[in-house]
């Protein structure tokens, strides 16, 4: 499916006017970057890179798209002809997926003609703004959860395709699984799930329901124990499945208190290996609050898919430099914006202490003056002469995230509001 | 494209266990409803109905989906065979699109076998929770804007397909247009757009850029005037396009002060009909705050697509009644939830005063005891024996929203936090 119309109307009218003025072919640099982190957040997480590369490859105007643009007179014939042949021929560098970021991190640098780059603005921003918001929230949750697995189950609380992207982004940021089957088909994200309250209510008794579930899904299944009375359900679950019962899930009430009670009961019943999964309106704070409770896994729904208070990142995509009539590259910027964003192709380094702890985000134009070897280069080639070169397995992004987050000063793990944990240094 | 895997894993494992236990075929009623409005909101707006009907028709397990479910051993062969033949044969009633809603409004009532209804849970909730969150925010914005048009331009700040649904939902709730071209192709939502700062920066001077835009897009275009100096840009715009200049757009700064200044300047230049469009981080409060400024249109981005603080609705989809072995319908409910949600097929009425002002949301089971003629019936047939019967043009939803919102007590228009404007009355 083409991504070409996941685009703001003005990208195409600008294109038309630029084709007419002759400026459309000026070599240009666009940059995708955040001016700030969401208030109080100490770091952000880049996600959506792989999806963005797919979207660039799928950005083609087919018959249906061109017909609509023509019939509705959105652009003129010259522009239609140009769009019919569209493909991106330029170069893109960017932060690799899973990397952490800070204010003014140049997450993506796009070099091509103005025309080829400007039309990608909307879809690139949509993907990065959404997926990174989810990954940034997810990372705080998995860090708070420590060694305990986090399972993404928020599909029902967000747009049906945003749900798929959310499952993917959460996986990048350390979630172990999702409930979303399309994320499994499309991105190989592991999925899990057993039953809901409706399954218990469908049967004449909880015993009937538990027997039906264990018979069909096996003793290692997870029984939902809070439809009626938790203590009775736990007793019944072990009666039905034996001590091999995989897990019980608690989806309501004071999860900390209940987890302690259920653990004691399970142990009394000899079900020492039966795990306890909790799943009621969790966010990173609730997860942290349950760290001393005997919980074996967290299912996170709504707060993951809404970015735990920050459902979008506020990334922008700005023209930062373009050729003039003499072929010289000229830095450009809107008057009222921070002049920091001028310039051509950026570099970006994570400055590390000799012990490997992140100390600064170093951003500049051209080549870095000094790289003493401890600095880590952040921009990698994603597209070269129109060909995608930055594709990688999702697991690589997942591993990168752990490494990148692991470099941050420990204060990054604090959930309280604060400034970015490292400063962004603009080199000239 | 099939919607079948936009589904939580547990829907299918439950299905497997219910097919095995024999309970899968029990006639069941599921209900999709909110337990509350988002904190402080006075009413909500139903959107996504048309999309949900599409999703039900497209809910088919094709080869790719079945192969994945089989290879990854997510369900057994019997379940795979059942899914291969899946189509929904039941009945669905619901609030029509654009209707306002309140706590416990039975937005959708699904009657079918347990098996056929349970698998639709995730995708129906995704669509309703997302689209209604956007429409609910949009309605506050258009009400605050009064007769001035609101234009949706938030695509870049949300998932690329959520953007399309957002444009659609905003249109239902009174927005006049969107920037999103896919929303135009797919849903006939009007779109608009002219140019961004990058277009001005691409050219050697603002004069070059304005001339290029006016030459290509005509004098009725909207010029973006805040790239460098607003006063100079307004002067230049009228010089280039004449008094026929369609509009100027201001995207930064103190919009109220600037609108007054720009209006005075335009009038001085004889451009009395040139409109002023403002577009910087607007929400319903900013729109209301600009009501006395000479603004002719509002472009709303981020705050629209994130639901202005409430990006999801918290709708749930609950089994409320099902057959027993004797074919009798039994009301069911989780112990800890409000017993209000028990029962079979609901009715819902908007109780209206003789002057047509909404007084209560009346919800009950079966047939209403009394309907004095002033009450408005809220549940309409959406699907009958598996056939979609509730499809309608999007404009019908848009008109319905205006009528439905117009019935509310005037306090509903207040943006300050408060209780739902009418009470939900549960009839027994």
Automatic annotation (TrEMBL), chains A, B:
Keyword Methyltransferase in annotation: no
Processing and modification events after translation: Transiently phosphorylated on a His residue during the reaction cycle. Phosphorylation strongly increases the affinity for substrates and increases the rate of nicotinate D-ribonucleotide production. Dephosphorylation regenerates the low-affinity form of the enzyme, leading to product release.
This protein's UniProt keywords: Glycosyltransferase, Ligase, Phosphoprotein, Pyridine nucleotide biosynthesis, Transferase
Catalytic activity, EC: 6.3.4.21
Cellular component annotations (GO), alphabetically ordered: cytosol
Pathway field: Cofactor biosynthesis; NAD(+) biosynthesis; nicotinate D-ribonucleotide from nicotinate: step 1/1
Residue span(s) of domain Nicotinate phosphoribosyltransferase N-terminal: 5-128
Ligase keyword on record: yes
Top EC group: ligase
Function comment: Catalyzes the first step in the biosynthesis of NAD from nicotinic acid, the ATP-dependent synthesis of beta-nicotinate D-ribonucleotide from nicotinate and 5-phospho-D-ribose 1-phosphate.
Protein name: Nicotinate phosphoribosyltransferase
